[in-house]
Structures are given as C-alpha cells and as structure tokens.
Amino acid sequence: MAIPEAGTSADVVFRADCPSRPILDQIADKWSMMVMAVLDEPRRFNEIKRRLEGVTQRVLTQTLRRLERNGMIARRVLPTSPVGVEYSLTPLGESLREPFGRLYDWTVSNADEIQRHQMEYDRRVQG
C-alpha cells in the first residue's frame, strides 16, 4: 500500500492482505527501531544489549533475528575464541536510518506535549 496523494485519503483502504502489514509489524516496533539506531557501526550482541536499557536477552535475540530475516541487518560470526558474533546494518537497513531518525526526533520534540495530553486524558477518564 503506497501513501496516498494529498486529498485522496478518503479512498485509502488498508487491506488485510497488504504485504506491508507484516513487514511494518516486524520492523517498526520500538526495539527494532532502537537496535537499528545503535547500529551506527558494527556491534556485538552484549554491546547492543548494554545500549538498550530494559531489553531482555530473549527480546533482543528475537528482534535481531527478525531484522536479519527481513534483510535489515547482517550477522557475522567472528573468528575469535570464544566465537563472537557481530551485527551491522545492510544497505536496506541503512536506508531506514533517515526516516527512523526523523520519527525519533519528532518523538523527542513532542514528548512533553504528548505526556500532557496523556495526563489530561487519564484525569478525564478516571474521574
């Protein structure tokens, strides 16, 4: 599904079988976006984990596998003892850095306003 031209949004149909749905689901979650943000250079698993406070080993492993499966990152086994693994962005993954960066910048710029709206909503709904 392509983004519609201005003035045609009433005609947009998000079909259940649209191939963009599972891809967006797999690459646009918070952990995928954060993993891709910290992969500004090749990094090992534990280095990625240290940079993502709160991520569990299981969730990080699943996220890395999903990103690798979708061609966003490459996994390289290092010839070290013990064997190490390093992850890096592929050209396809690199192409997402700019739009993800804009989304991140938007969230930082608007976080205070969003939190204000959340508090107002919660007060309204609770009481």
Q: How far apart are the first and last residues' alpha carbons, in Å?
A: 41 Å
Quote the average pLDDT. 89
Question: In what range is the share of β-strand residues?
Answer: 5-15%
Order of helices and strands: HHEHHEEH
| Strand arrangement in the largest pleated sheet | 1-3-2
| Shape assignment | globular
- The number of helical segments is 5
Rg (CA only): 18 Å
* Poorly predicted regions: none
Binned, the helix content reads: 55-70%
Sketch the major β-sheet.
3 strands, antiparallel
Number of strands: 3
Structural class: mainly alpha
What are the key terms here?
127 residues; 5 helices; 57% helix; 11% strand
Could you explain the architecture of this structure?
The protein is built from five helices and three strands, in the order ααβααββα. The chain has a three-stranded antiparallel β-sheet with strand order 1-3-2. By secondary structure, it is mainly alpha-helical. The chain has helices at 20-27, 30-38, 45-51, 57-69, 91-126, and strands at residues 43-44, 73-78, 84-89.
Record the SSE blueprint.
Layout (H helix, E strand, L loop, with lengths): L19 H8 L2 H9 L4 E2 H7 L5 H13 L3 E6 L5 E6 L1 H36 L1
Antiparallel strand pairs: 1-3, 2-3
